[in-house]
Amino acid sequence: MSTQTKNRTSRAPKTMRAQNQRTSALTIGTSKAWTGGAITALIVLALMWVIPILWGVATSLKTEKDAAGPALSVPSQGWTLDAYVQVLTQGEIPRWMFNSFFVAVSVTILTVAISALAAYGFSRTEFRGRKWLFALTIASIMVPGQILIVPLFQQMNSMRLTDTFAGIILPQIVAPMMVFIMKNFFETIPQELEEAARIDGAGRMRIFITIIVPLSRPILMAVSIFVFIGAWNNFLWPFIVTNNPDLLTLPVGLATVKNAYGVQYAQSMASAILAALPLMVVFALFQRQIVKGFATSGMGGQ
Question: Which pTM does this prediction carry?
Answer without folding.
Answer: 0.76
